C-alpha cells in the first residue's frame, strides 16, 4: 500500500473553483455517470481499432444504492485504469484523461473534456473509493480519499474490466440515499445517454434518441412517439424540424411546434439542451432565439460544455451561430409548408401565428423571410387569408390614404365590433383579424418596418373617416341646427372624456357612432398589458369621439321636439347606445340607460 498527496497544479486552481460552483449538488451523479459513459465509449473505440482483444461483454453502467451502508456505487465495464493511470488521473487534479484520449482518437465520442467531474463526488461524500481494472493485463487498483489531499492506493481484487466508484454519503447529503431522489436525477440528466444505464435492475435510459438518427431513417410516427416520451399526455405537435449540422459547429436535435391556441397556454423552458446526450439545462434562451422559446424539443451540441454558464453562452461565437442557424431552419420550414400546402398552413395559423409574429418583431432576418408566409385572416364569413402583398393588391383601389399608404383595417373582437365591421365591409373595405396577446405590439412594430402600411382598428373612427382621403362630408342640417345638436350632446359621462362632432353621413349610418382614437387606444392597451413605462397610460380616462350623423332622420324629429326633458333623454340614449357598442357603458351608467329606456317606452 502506498500513501501520498494529491497534486494540484497551480494553473488549474481557477478551473477547480469554477467546477465546484454548482447550484445543485445533484450534479455529482451526472458527472460520475458521464465519466462512466466516457470509459465505455473509449473501450469501444479501442476495440474497433484492434487495441482491445476478445469479447467486450455487455457494456452497461449500474447505479447501486445501499441505504444501510450509506453508499452509492457507479459501476461501468469500460476501459478501466492501471495503478499508474490512477495516480496520473486522480491524484493530479484537473489533468483530463478525456482530453488526452481525444487528441489521440479524434473520432471518439467522448462527453467530458475537463478532468474535474470525478471530484464532484466529494460534494456529497465523506469518502470516495475507486476499484478499477484496466483492459491491459495488469492487476486491479484500489484508491481511496476522504476529501483531504491525502489518499491511499493499493492493489485490489477485481475480476472484470471496468471501474466502480463508491461514494460514502455524508450526513448533509442523505437525501441522495432515497430511491426516488436518485430516480428523479437519473431521469433528468441521463435519460438519453448513449450507454445502457441500470438502476434497481431496470434500464432507465434510451441510448438511441431520434435526434442522433438521420431523418431518412425516421417516420412521422417515430417523431410523434419521441414527443410523447419527452412530454407525456401532451397534444400531438403540429410539425417538427430535424436539426443536423456539422460545420461550422456541431448540432443535432428536433424542435416541435406545439399547439397554442390561447395566450395563457404559453410555456417557455420546454427545450432541453444536451451535450453528447448528457442533459445540461432547459434554460436555453441564449442559444435559441427568444421567439422560438415557445417551441418544444431537444438540442444537442458537443460544442457547448456541460458546465455551461450564462456568461459563456452570451459570449461564445458558436452559440451565436447556432442561434442564427435555428432561426433560418425554422423560417425555411415554415416557407416550405406554406408553398407545399397552403391550405394546411392556414389551418395551423391559429397555432403558429404567435411564433411568426413574435419572430417578425424580434429577429430582422426572420422578418425578411416571414414576409412571404405571414398571413392575415379576413373577418368576413369566408375567413379567407391574405399575405401582405395579396392584401395590398386587393385593397389598392379603396384603402390608400392621402399619403399613399395602405390602410390595414383590423378587428380585435369580431363579435363586439360587428357593427363597425359590417359598415366598413359595406364600403368594400377588407377587415382582418388581430386578436392575440402579441397583436398590439406587433401592429406598432410593423408600422415601423413596413414603410407603406398603416394599421387602423375598424372602430377607430366613423367608416367615412377610416381611410383619410380629405373628403368633405355634407350635412343637411343648418349651422343653427348643428350647433343645437352639439349643445345637446355635451354630456357628463363618468370616467370618459367625450369629444362631439356633427357630420353629414349616409342616412343609413347609425345616428351616433362612438369611436376611440387609434393612438390613444393603443397607449391604453399597452398600459393595460403592464410595465412601469406604460402604467401611466392605463390610468388615463377613456377618450372617445361621438360622431353625430346629422343626416339621420331621427334628428329632424328630436330637433322639433318641444319637450326638453324628452329631447335630452332621447339624445342621452342615443349616446349610450353608441357607448354600449364600444363596451364603455358600465355600472350605474348602464343601469340608468335601462331605466331610462323603459320609462321612454311607457
What do these coordinates show?
The chain has 602 residues and is of the alpha/beta class. The protein has 4 domains: 2-203, 2-Layer Sandwich (Heat Shock Protein 90), CATH 3.30.565; 210-342, Ribosomal Protein S5, domain 2, CATH 3.30.230.80; 374-465, Rossmann fold, CATH 3.40.50.11260; 479-516 and 539-600, Heat shock protein 90, C-terminal domain (Four Helix Bundle (Hemerythrin (Met), subunit A)), CATH 1.20.120. Helices cover 36% and strands 20% of the residues. It contains 19 helices and 24 strands. A 9-stranded mixed sheet has the order 1-8-7-6-9-4-3-10-11, covered by helices on one side. It has a 5-stranded mixed sheet with strand order 12-13-16-14-15, sandwiched between helices. It has a 3-stranded parallel sheet with strand order 20-19-21. Helix 18 packs across helix 19 (587-600). It starts with a strand and ends with a helix. Residues 9-22, 94-98 and 108-115 have low confidence and may be disordered.
Amino acid at each position: 500500500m502506498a500513501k501520498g498527496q494529491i497534486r494540484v497544479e497551480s494553473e488549474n486552481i481557477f478551473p477547480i473553483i469554477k467546477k465546484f460552483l454548482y447550484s445543485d449538488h445533484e450534479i455529482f451523479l451526472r458527472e460520475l455517470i458521464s465519466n462512466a459513459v466516457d470509459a465505455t465509449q473509449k473501450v469501444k473505440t479501442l476495440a474497433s481499432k484492434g487495441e482491445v482483444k476478445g469479447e467486450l461483454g455487455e457494456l452497461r453502467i449500474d447505479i447501486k444504492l445501499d441505504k444501510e451502508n450509506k453508499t452509492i456505487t457507479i459501476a461501468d465495464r469500460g476501459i478501466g485504469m492501471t495503478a499508474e493511470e490512477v495516480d496520473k488521473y486522480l491524484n493530479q487534479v484537473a489533468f483530463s484523461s478525456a482530453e488526452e484520449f481525444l487528441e489521440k482518437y479524434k473520432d471518439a465520442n467522448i462527453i467530458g473534456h475537463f478532468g474535474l467531474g470525478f471530484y464532484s463526488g466529494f460534494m456529497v461524500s465523506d469518502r470516495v473509493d475507486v476499484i478499477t481494472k484496466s483492459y491491459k493485463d495488469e492487476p486491479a487498483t484500489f484508491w481511496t480519499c476522504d476529501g483531504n489531499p491525502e489518499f491511499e492506493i493499493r492493489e485490489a481484487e477485481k475480476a472484470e474490466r471496468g471501474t466502480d466508484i463508491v461514494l460514502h454519503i455524508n450526513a448533509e447529503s442523505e437525501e441522495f440515499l432515497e430511491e426516488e431522489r436518485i430516480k428523479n436525477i437519473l431521469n433528468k440528466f441521463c435519460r438519453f445517454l448513449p450507454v445502457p444505464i441500470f438502476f434497481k435492475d431496470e434500464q432507465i435510459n434510451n441510448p438511441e434518441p431520434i435526434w442522433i438518427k438521420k431523418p431518412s431513417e425516421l417516420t412521422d410516427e417515430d417523431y410523434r412517439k419521441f414527443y410523447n416520451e419527452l412530454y407525456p399526455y401532451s397534444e400531438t405537435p403540429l410539425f417538427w424540424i430535424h436539426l443536423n449540422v456539422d460545420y461550422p459547429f456541431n448540432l443535432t436535435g428536433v424542435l416541435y411546434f406545439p399547439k397554442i391556441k390561447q395566450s395563457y397556454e404559453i410555456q417557455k423552458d420546454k427545450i432541453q439542451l444536451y451535450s453528447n446526450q448528457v442533459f445540461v439545462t432547459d434554460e436555453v434562451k441564449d442559444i435559441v432565439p427568444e421567439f422560438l422559446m415557445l417551441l418544444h424539443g431537444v438540442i444537442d451540441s458537443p460544442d457547448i460544455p456541460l458546465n455551461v454558464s450564462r456568461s459563456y453562452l452570451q459570449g461564445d461565437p458558436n452559440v451565436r451561430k447556432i442561434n442564427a442557424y435555428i432561426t433560418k431552419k425554422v423560417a425555411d420550414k415554415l416557407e416550405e409548408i406554406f408553398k407545399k400546402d397552403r391550405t394546411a398552413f392556414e389551418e395551423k395559423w391559429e397555432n403558429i401565428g404567435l411564433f411568426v409574429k413574435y419572430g417578425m418583431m424580434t429577429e430582422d432576418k426572420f422578418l425578411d423571410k416571414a414576409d412571404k408566409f405571414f398571413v392575415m385572416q379576413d373577418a368576413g364569413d369566408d375567413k379567407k387569408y391574405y399575405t401582405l402583398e395579396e392584401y395590398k393588391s386587393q385593397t389598392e383601389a379603396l384603402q390608400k390614404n392621402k399619403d399613399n399608404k395602405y390602410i390595414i383595417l383590423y378587428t380585435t373582437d369580431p363579435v363586439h365590433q360587428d357593427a363597425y365591421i359590417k359598415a366598413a365591409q359595406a364600403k368594400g373595405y377588407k377587415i382582418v383579424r388581430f386578436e392575440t396577446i402579441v397583436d398590439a405590439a406587433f401592429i406598432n412594430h410593423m408600422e415601423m418596418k413596413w414603410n407603406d402600411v398603416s394599421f387602423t382598428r375598424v372602430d377607430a373612427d366613423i367608416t367615412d373617416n377610416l381611410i383619410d382621403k380629405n373628403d368633405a362630408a355634407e350635412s343637411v342640417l343648418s349651422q343653427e341646427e348643428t350647433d343645437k345638436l352639439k349643445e345637446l350632446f355635451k354630456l357628463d359621462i363618468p370616467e370618459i372624456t367625450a369629444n362631439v362632432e356633427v357630420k353629414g353621413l349616409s342616412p343609413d349610418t347609425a345616428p351616433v357612432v362612438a369611436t376611440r382614437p387609434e393612438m390613444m387606444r393603443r397607449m391604453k392597451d399597452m398600459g393595460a398589458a403592464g410595465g412601469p413605462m406604460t402604467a401611466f397610460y392605463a390610468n388615463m380616462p377613456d377618450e372617445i369621439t361621438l360622431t353625430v350623423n346629422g343626416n339621420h332622420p331621427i334628428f329632424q324629429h328630436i330637433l322639433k321636439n318641444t319637450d326638453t326633458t324628452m329631447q335630452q333623454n332621447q339624445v342621452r340614449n342615443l349616446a349610450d347606445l353608441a357607448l354600449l357598442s364600444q363596451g364603455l357603458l358600465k355600472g350605474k351608467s348602464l343601469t340608468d340607460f335601462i331605466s331610462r329606456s323603459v320609462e321612454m317606452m311607457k
